[in-house]
Amino acid sequence: MFTFVNDFLRFRSIKRLYVRYERFLVPGMLLLGVLVDVVTFRTIQIHTALMILGLYAVLAGIMIGVIHWYDATNHLIEKPSKTAYLRVLAPLIVQFTFGALLSASLIFYWFSGSFAVSWPFILLLIFLMGANDVFREYYLRPFVQLSVYAFILFSVLAVALPFVFHSLSAWVFILAGGISAFIIFLYLKILFQIRPDLVRLRSVLSISISSIFLLMNVLYFLNIIPPIPLSLTDSGVYHFVERSGSLYLVSSEQESFLDTVIPRQTIHTAPGERVYVFTSIFAPLELNTEVVHHWQRYEAGEGWVSVNRLNYSISGGRQRGYRGYSYITHYEPGKWRVDVETARGQVIGRVSFSIEKVDALPSLIISEK
Questions:
Q1: 163 forms bridges with which residues in the sheet?
Q2: What H or E segment, with its residue span, contains residue 119?
Q3: Could you give the CA distance from residue 324 to residue 233 in angstroms, rounded to a whole number?
Q4: Does residue 64 lie in a domain region?
Q5: What is the pLDDT of residues 77-93, one digit of tens each?
Q6: CB 241 within 8 A of CB 229
Q7: Do residues 84 and 317 make contact, with C-beta atoms less than 8 angstroms apart?
């Protein structure tokens, strides 16, 4: 009898603390998930990081199931049992795993594409991370919770499968969508058996999840979703680029202190001189693909006009990135940019600069890449 009373009082005390500090605990778990991601991706192998993300996804699914199973069994939350303690902790664990998974997706997609091109998808990830805190009460509602979980499964698989198959082909993205759709609908079938009252949400959940999958595919085939797992690690515009053994020698103008603080690349060229763009692209081991340098010039009234598309092959595995360059000989002064793209046209990064023609070249310095 005394044991039951002690357990009951201890549980009530824990629950009271949870309710009092919930507004701090929930965003705290989100922030913790983000911090764990930052540490994880800086200190361990990428395949280990992907395995951890897989465990997060499984844990999130288990905790969502625990919440609905416990609520469906009509237990009183005050009952001091082990499952009651787990029911109190489950929303925090869901918030932690959602925060970790969303921030991981943001980290991968942010570094694997140009914000100028991929901003709709990147802002969507940022919004979901923010909403995970600001609208936490809505996140605990089954419809919102399960819809976000479906989105997370798709985005994480779209990150992981290119590493698994060493390919950036469209079929890998489609496969990620197919696997995540199978998982989420199988999960919903099991969840409806655990909690039959959620069957009323079947139609609206089907519409929501199908819309998410349709949106993801539209963004992908419009080349708005970045080309995971490629990322631009270094880039620049130069007067000359030459390979010397295992290094590249680049010739650039001396920069002022202001230029180093506020990058604004302007290259001053003499008549007949070439303009080079150098890039270094990270790709995972055993991934071979084509990279395109898409040269474009800005023309008043017409916008960005395509001038040339120059491509070269890359082979993954070099930690500091696979290096390459392209150049043009015939050009006009003005604003230029080079989009670093995949063969499908997905933008990995962008090099923006201006060209000014001068009679005599400024002093140049040579550095190694």
A1: none
A2: helix 115-134
A3: 12
A4: yes
A5: 445 566 777 777 788 78
A6: no
A7: no
Same domain, 248 and 209: no
pLDDT at residue 321 in the model: 64
Same domain, 363 and 256: yes
> Residue 338 in contact with residue 221, Cβ under 8 Å?
no
Pairing, β 240-244 against β 247-253: antiparallel
Q: Are residues 194 and 65 in the same domain?
A: yes
Nearest to 235 by CA among 318, 353, 142, 333: 353
Whole-angstrom distance, CA of residue 135 vs CA of residue 369: 46
Predicted confidence band of residue 177 (pLDDT cuts 50, 70, 90): very high
What pTM did the predictor assign?
0.72
With a cut of 80, say whether residue 5 has pLDDT above it. no
| Cα gap 141→345, rounded to integer Å | 39
Residue 23 has pLDDT above 70, yes or no: no
Torsions phi, psi for 358 (to 5 deg) = -135, 160
In contact, 96 and 33? CB cutoff 8 Å: yes
Distance between CA 349 and CA 338 in Å, rounded? 9
Is 283 a residue whose pLDDT tops 90?
no
Q: Which residue has the higher pLDDT, 359 or 18?
A: 359
Last-in-domain residue among 171, 191, 221: 221
What is the DSSP-derived secondary structure letter of residue 154?
H
Q: Which residue has the higher pLDDT, 369 or 264?
A: 369
Rg (CA), the chain: 26
Helix (H, G, I), strand (E, B) or coil at 111: helix
Please answer whether residues 100 and 49 qualify as being in contact, where contact means their C-beta atoms are separated by less than 8 angstroms: no
- What is the edge-to-edge ordering of all strands in the sheet holding 240-244? 240-244, 247-253, 364-368
Top pLDDT among 104 and 349 is at 349
DSSP string, 172-204: HHHHHHHHHHHHHHHHHHHHHHH-GGGGGGHHH
Residue 332: which CATH number? 2.60.40.10
Whether residues 315 and 188 fall in one domain:
no
- Integer Cα distance of 289 and 313 in angstroms: 6
